[in-house]
Structure formats: C-alpha cells, structure tokens
Amino acid sequence: MPFPRLSPARELRRATAVVLAVAAFGAIAEGAGDRHVLEQAPIDTAAEERLLALVPERISERDVREVLARAPAPRIITLDGSVPVVTMAPFAEFLVAMGYPDERIRDPNGGALSYSSSIDARRLAGAMAWYYEREGMMPVLIGHSQGGMVAIRVLYELAGEFGDSIPVWNPISGAAETRTTIVDPRTGASRPVVGLEVPYVAALATGKLPRILLGQWTMLPRLHSIPDTAEEFTGFSFEWDPIAGNFGSAEPYRATGSARVRNVILPPKASHLALPLARELALDPAARDWINRYAPGPGTPSPPSGALADLPNLLHAADIWYSVKKHWCLEAQRLVRGARKSAAPLQ
User: Fold this and answer.
1) What is the pTM assigned to this prediction?
2) Domains in the chain: ranges and CATH
C-alpha cells in the first residue's frame, strides 16, 4: 500500500516538527495499518550546548561517544560495486563499530547495510529527498566502484542534468509519490527535489573503463566532474587499477563549480575488490587509535608504521570516518541552530 499522502498543511507541520524536535535518532516505526512515521526523540539543552561547542574538523572518539551519539545523525547510503563479490556491508559495519548509529545506515525496507549499484539513480535521488523532508537531514553517499558512479549520477540527477523534475520516491512503499516537490524542513517552504545538495559523497575506485564496457555512455564525460549538488566530495583512486582503467595514473576529480573536491591516491598494497573490508580496523586498538586521530592535510598523524603499515585499507577508512564525523557534527549543529532560530512551539 502506498505511503498515505498528507495535505500540504500537515506536511508542513510534520517537517517543522522534525526540525524542532531535534532527533536523537530518526527511526522508521510502524503505525496504524501500513502507515509509517518517523519518531524523533529530543535532546536536552545541556546536550545541545555540548554539541554546538564541538569543532567539526576535530572530533575525538570521546566526542563521538559522549556527544554525537546523543545527537541526530544523517542517513548514510552505501552502494556496492557492479559485481558485489564483496558488498559495502563490511564497510558499513566498520562505521557502526566506530560509533555510527546502525539504524542510520540500514535500509529501513529490509534492513540491508548496503544497496546494489543496479539501483536507479533517479529513484535514489527521489528517496533522498523523502528522507530529507522527514528527517531534516540530507543523506550522504559512499559508493564503491560502480556504486561510486551511481553516487555521482545522483548528483547529476539532482542538478537537473537528466530532467527538469524528479518524483519523490517513498523507500518504505517502494513507489513514487505523485509530486516532485517537498516541504523543506529548514524553511517550511515547498521546493523541488531538483537542486537539493548532498553534504558528503565518497567514490572508491570508480573508473571509466567499466562505464565503456557496460555501455554507460552518459556518465563517461561526467564521471570526474563534480557538480554543485555535492557540498563536499572525495574521490579515492589507484594509480594502477586495471579494473577501473588506470594504468600508471589516475584521472583526478574536479569541481564544475562550488563543490569542495579532494583526491586521495590509495596505497598500492590496497586492492580494488577488497576496499570495503574495513570492519576489523575498528576492532584493532592501534588501528582504531590512528583512525580516530587522522585528519587530512596539515596535522595528519604520522604515517602508519610497523604492523599498521601492512593494513591496506587503513587510509581510506580513516579518511571517510573523518568526513563522516565532520558532517555528522555539522548537520546535527545545523538542526539545533535551526530549531533555536525558529523558536516555535512544537504542535
């Protein structure tokens, strides 16, 4: 049964309530019949103050455990490669083991920790708008190989490159809704799905050669150009990666406009197919400590040595966890500030 359509007034009240409640965690809960609602648990003023005092670029393990764990978290959508011999589920398990809320990664319709890269990017863009409207936070995307291409395709869908409008997609009912606009939870105004921005996107070992082999021609000229619908994008590549089509060099990602784009070259000892296998890093005390202290650019911890130097997936795991923590903090702070600015009673 399709998700019941609310009147514009009720949609506005619901969207406003999401922001004002400032969820500790947004969970899909079953209501009467087939209707699903998002339950939000408020956090207290003291917890809000601790959250607002955090510096997003310097989040410690203690900050995650004592502050962010009590704050709202953006949904993370992890996308598998084209031949998921290894899915992105182990990487999702790494994020959970590092402290990210499990329910913010799982597909609420079935509970999977990762999504197939055969997913329709247009539908995924519509589903992200649905989540944003109800949770007050835009999801982030992390894709491996072809999953990275899908993540970039979503950015182009949101940029209006493949159509002037995108239907809102209900991920619970698995069907499109009869609208192409949402009530923006930050403003309370109606707005189109096209034009929404994704706070953070990561693409792991995503290359052009598979796009040629799979006939994905529309993405060939766009694959390494990141549109403004990404606030921040990190591309991870190998200089030598025959699967991706890199033979001694990796084509860098570039912003077409205002997106903040970073390129990270992965160490040769890492493997294209094994990049998602990061869960054990969170369980190794020395690796976990290095990951928690990692920050890109100036101030980066010393390169791993000894046994850590032999861990092939350490760099990208640390870099993604750094960005996930950063945007978790930024988005939660944005919700709190928005709620305080509104200063309206919760109906």
Assistant:
1) 0.86
2) 74-331 (3.40.50.1820)
